[in-house]
Amino acid sequence: MDMNLFPTKGNLIRARNSLALSRQGYDLLEKKRNILVREMMNMIDKARKVNDEMLTVFTEAYKALQDANISLGISVVQQIGFAIPEEESIQIREQSIMGVEIPIVSIDEKKMQPMYSFHKTNGALDTARKKFEQVKILTAQLAEIENSVYRLAQNIRRTMKRTNALKNIIIPRYESISSTIENVLGEKEREEFSRLKVIKSVKEKKS
Question: Looking at per-residue confidence, does 133 or 3 come out higher?
């Protein structure tokens, strides 16, 4: 029903209720957007730190691997690498931030034990293994953060579309409807008052 066509008190009440609800929804969405933006900015800062740390550890890991290749031979290191099983200790769960599901990635570091014999190996290989384990942990952390930032950014965009729709379309429309109905009803009341005044004046003259 187009409430512009029916300027009644009932429609005025409904328009005012819809306006109040729209304003409340706008305030809530604005608060949600601000919280999500703040959370995303914190994660972006964290991602920069993890990325910088990972670049450093990557450099150290490849340097250690190079030393192991030189001291043990590339073929020996490759054979040891092929013997290492796939990583199965990674676990992913989710937590909600203002309705946005954020992934939490964890690795069971206790299971990250050497999978090769110490016979015919040396400290260079052990150093490379430890460094690449650090790389694995940092990669999981970075993946968690980047995925979270992506999900937050998507939800922020959707929230902004809703707030803009409420601010620029819905709220002004109900404000206009309420104002129009109030003006029409006010005009009707003035006309009714004038009519009653005339009737009263005529009655007084007759009496």
Answer: 133
Backbone angles phi, psi at 120, to 5 degrees: 65, 20
- Identify the residue with better confidence: 171 or 79: 171
* 3-state DSSP of 76-125: HHHHHHHHCCCCCCEEEEEEEECCEEEEEEEECHHHCCCCCCCCCCCHHH
Give Cα separations from 205 to 64, 164, 198, 199, 201 (angstroms). Answer: 113, 60, 11, 10, 6
Amino acid at 111: K
Say yes or no: domain 9-199 is CATH 3.40.50.300.
no
Q: What is the pTM of this model?
A: 0.74
pLDDT digits (tens, 9 = 90+) for 34-81: 999 999 999 999 999 999 999 999 899 899 889 888 888 888 888 877
User: Is the CB of residue 140 less than 8 Å from the CB of residue 132?
Assistant: no
What is the number of other CB atoms lying within 10 angstroms of the CB of residue 141? 20
Give the residue among 158, 141, 53 at the shortest CA–CA distance from 98. Answer: 158
